[in-house]
Design goal:
The chain has 396 residues and is of the alpha/beta class. It folds into 2 domains: 175 residues, 3-Layer(aba) Sandwich (Rossmann fold); 206 residues, CoaB-like (Rossmann fold). It is 33% helix and 26% strand. The strands form 5 sheets. An 8-stranded mixed beta sheet has the order 13-12-9-14-17-18-19-20, sandwiched between helices. Strand 7 and strand 8 form a beta hairpin.
Length: 396
């Protein structure tokens, strides 16, 4: 069930580090996306080139090494669905348990708010040390899943508990977690994203500033919760789930009718910014400026996709709309859900510079048919999307 999931693997300094190569291979073979963060000492036991090659991603070791200056411990936390630290040394376990952040891996563990898995591996004496056991218990209390080490022959020449748990056991532990946290398993979800473009002539169009980031985040969240996702989009994007490219509102309507109504999908989430109007006629050739000081273009209304789908859906289907406003946000959003007839409206204020179009952040209000309002405070669009899906459809 890890197919399409984002798995962050942290490797610490220990001889068992070489075994993680097989773990990466297992996840990749089964369709997961894998990124690796390693402590400097870990790279004494397994090479960066090997990890690069197996994960098909760069290995992350530095906290401030991105072109956009976004700290790695924030960017990777946003990206990952789970964080698995294997092997986890006594030193790293102690740091994480006590909130110490002296490298990228420990900073990630401190900032990570989703499920953390820790697979200890060390000498028997170290593992049985009361201080180490206290730290492990503290991590359990904090919600981490501890994948207990096996007993057996150790690299130090002794025999006892402390051997890294079997790789298949570690893999299956993560797989079971995904299986039990997929409330949308078996559901078909259609998401629209981006701003439509309405042609004036072959080189000009009427459009808007929507980047499609929120819609993409919603589609990603639905896929992570087990849904069979189709993303109808107006921009270039590659994903493991199905994507359909459209340009205009009419093209989007046709795609949504097919994917949601004809194929009887369970949920439609309309995050796209659909143009309200389009030119009545699109010129076959480029309109020349010539000596005209003004140009008049007659506009006609586009189809109201959200309203049409809300009217045509069956009783077992749900339609969720998005409402982008620059003022009177809740007032307009409540009026919209009553007018459109959808099941929920997600309202967001596009006038705010740090949560508007093209921003990586958002702050939204979820409004239901009874006009009850639930606020989700400012967060990354990825986290906002996951919170929306979990609030609406819950966790098993």
């Amino acid at each position: 069930m890890s197919k399409g999931k984002n798995i962050l693997i942290g490797i610490t300094g220990g001889i068992a580090a070489y075994k993680i190569c097989e773990l990466i291979r297992l996840f990749k073979k089964n369709g997961a996306n894998v990124k690796v963060t390693a402590t400097p000492n870990a790279l004494h036991f397994v090479t960066e080139l090997t990890l690069d090659t197996l994960s098909q991603e760069q290995v992350y070791t530095e906290q401030f090494n991105t072109a956009d200056k976004k700290p790695e411990h924030i960017a990777l936390c946003d990206w990952a669905d789970v964080f698995l630290i294997a092997p986890a040394s006594a030193n790293t376990i102690g740091k994480i348990a006590n909130g110490l952040c002296d490298n990228l891996l420990t900073s990630l563990a401190c900032a990570f708010q989703k499920q953390l898995f820790i697979a200890p591996a060390m000498n028997t004496g170290m593992y049985n040390n009361p201080a180490v056991q206290k730290n492990i218990e503290a991590l359990k209390t904090a919600g981490a899943v501890i994948i207990e080490p096996d007993s057996g022959f150790l690299a130090c020449g002794t025999s006892g508990v402390g051997r890294l748990s079997d790789i298949n056991k570690i893999y299956n532990c993560v797989e079971k977690y995904f299986q039990s946290n997929m409330p949308l398993q078996g559901k078909r979800v259609v998401v629209t994203a981006g701003g439509t473009k309405e042609n004036i002539d072959p080189v000009r169009y009427i459009g808007n500033y929507s980047s499609g980031k929120m819609g993409t985040a919603v589609a990603d969240a639905a896929a992570r919760l087990g849904a069979d996702v189709t993303l109808v989009k107006t921009f270039d994007l590659s994903r493991s789930y199905e994507t359909i490219d459209v340009k205009s509102a009419q093209e989007m309507l046709q795609a949504v009718e097919k994917e949601f109504l004809q194929k009887n999908a369970d949920i439609l989430i309309m995050t796209a910014a659909v143009a309200d109007y389009r030119p009545e006629k699109c010129a076959d050739l480029k309109i020349k400026k010539e000596n005209n000081e003004t140009l008049t273009i007659k506009l006609v209304k586009n189809p109201d996709i959200l309203k049409e789908m809300s009217e045509k859906k069956s009783s077992n289907q749900q339609v969720i709309g998005f409402c982008a406003e620059s003022n009177n946000l809740l007032e307009y959003a409540k009026a919209k859900i009553q007018k459109k007839g959808c099941d929920y409206i997600i309202a967001n204020d596009i006038s705010s510079k740090d949560t508007g179009f093209s921003s990586d952040y958002n702050e939204v209000f979820i409004i239901n048919k009874n006009l009850q309002v639930t606020k989700i405070d400012k967060d990354t669009k990825q986290n906002i999307a996951m919170k929306i899906m979990e609030l609406l459809y819950g966790k098993n």
